[in-house]
Amino acid sequence: MNKRSGNVLGLATPLRAWAQRSAFIVFFALAIVLLILGRADTPAVERVRTAVNDAVAPILELATSPVATVSDAIVNARELMEVRATNEALRQENERLLQWRAAAQRLEDENRLLRDLNELTIEPRTRYITARVIGDQGGAFVRSVLVSAGTRDGVAKGQAALTGKGLAGRVAETGRRAARILLVTDMNSRVPVLVGQSRDRAVLAGDNSPMPELLYFSPGVQIRVGDRVVTSGHGGAFPSGLPIGVVTEVRENEVRVEPYVDWSHLEFLRLVDYELPRILTSAEDGLAKAGVQAKEAAEAKTPAADAGKAVMEPTR
Amino acid sequence: MKLSLWQRLDAIARSMFPVTATLLLILASMVPLRIPDLAPIIPSLSLIAVYYWTIHRPDLMPIWAVFAIGVTQDLLSGAMLGVGSIALLLVRHLVISQARFFTSASFVVIWSIFALVAVLAFFVMWLLTSLSTATLVEHRPATFQYLMTLAVYPGFTWLFVHGQRLFLR
């Protein structure tokens, strides 16, 4: 007994070194495998991701509320000090906005009339889901946040995430109670957009910097600083016309856009559940038809079966 | 007999302190703090934790735990899976291979070495992210995150030292 343990002890140091090295190699290889699996958008990886996010969502929700209380208190105190100036500014803005409202109502009426004239009826159904941001952008290499709403609240992949000011991102992963929003500044984010009054098509591509870049516009297109950038709705995931930001920098081969969204105050996000009704109803029709057909087929079968039984029974 | 069972449970719970603390810190660093521009450069607390515990109690920060911490962090932050694990495994390997040196090193020396090790870790993360997206990822956020991590290192070391005294004696 003693002798054996002595042998083990004697072997321990080189053995341990060897075990350590091989463990390092094994786990390192495992990490590389994960890297490849994750990059290849494996469904299993996504399932694990959403499961983990779901699991920590309640904890993060709990932790978020005191932080929100403190930060709200600070904001309140600051606002109290500036209340007079803010009041005056708001009064002026209100006057201006009232004029705009009148203009907007007039335009809306006109728009409706013109739509009626054109029989343009592709106005989509939209529903909003409001979700609290519970997980911040984690570090230098990603621009995404976790929100406290998931499939049980009707969140689905691809939905647009808005703040009051404009588009923040889109839903990239959904768990049952949590979802990950890929922000427009993330390097994996590509949003089809329209630029300026001429509504030229382009793609807004994030690169992890606060200012995403405009890509793929036609070479002849004139883009100026101050041009508004809105979603184009191409690709069908987003409603068209959601404000994103303004062009702030036009250089040779590089056009930068500053999003309207205030990234440091992402508190709540509105997720847009947007459906093109025609596509949906046709799909529903198809399903309904299929259902009816299946029922008919089943009914056609049962009498025959009954008849079969009826025939069988007397012989028994 | 009963006492020894409790003692054993107690010992297990205590020995889990480094890993548990690290996971809690990862969660804590995800809570939205609403401080302007902090989120992209939030210090990488897992890097500090793995470095500290590998130096002081490598037995309580085993390699599989380091791997799991990396995976957890990547899953939670939405980063590319595997990148965090690779960086943390490298940190652990570097520290373990120089374990004898660290036993006699002073705090300032350990902090200085951390500065070097963290450069390597962030560079590896930056490189892997760039490689797998086939673009040169903006390096400034990573640089600032690195500097933030370096800056908060003494504070968290202080926390860990006290935790170690409290739970591990």
Plain-language structure description:
The complex is a heterodimer of chains A (316) and B (169). Chain A is an alpha+beta fold. Chain A is built from four helices and twelve strands; from the N terminus they run αααββββββββββββα. Chain A is globular and about 85 Å long. Mean pLDDT of chain A is 78; it is low at 1-9 and 277-316. The longest helix of chain B has 29 residues, at 140-168. With 169 residues, chain B is mostly helical. Chain B has one domain. The interface between A and B is large, with 55 and 56 residues.
Indicate the topology:
The complex is a heterodimer of chains A (316) and B (169).
Chain A: H1 2-39, H2 43-81, H3 83-118, E1 125-135, E2 144-147, E3 160-162, E4 167-174, E5 179-183, E6 190-195, E7 200-205, E8 213-215, E9 228-231, E10 243-251, E11 254-259, E12 268-275, H4 277-315
Antiparallel strand pairs in A: 1-2, 1-12, 2-5, 3-4, 3-12, 4-5, 6-7, 6-9, 7-8, 9-10, 10-11
Chain B: H1 2-15, H2 17-28, H3 45-56, H4 63-77, H5 83-97, H6 99-103, H7 107-133, H8 140-168
Helix pairs in contact in B: 2-3, 2-4, 3-5, 3-8, 4-5, 5-7, 7-8
Distance between the termini of chain B: 24 Å
- Spell out the helices and strands of chain B N to C: HHHHHHHH
Rg result of chain A = 29 Å
Give the terminus-to-terminus CA distance of chain A: 78 Å
Report on the biggest sheet of chain A.
6 strands, antiparallel, barrel
Low-confidence stretches of chain A: 1-9, 277-316
- Helical content of chain A (DSSP H or I, runs of 4+): 40-55%
Please give the domain count of chain B: 1
Notable traits:
heterodimer, A: 316 residues, alpha+beta, Thrombin, subunit H, six-stranded antiparallel β-sheet, 4 helices, 48% helix, 23% strand, globular, disordered N terminus, B: 169 residues, mainly alpha, 76% helix
How would you briefly describe this protein structure?
The complex is a heterodimer of chains A (316) and B (169). With 316 residues, chain A is an alpha+beta fold. Helices cover 48% and strands 23% of the residues of chain A.
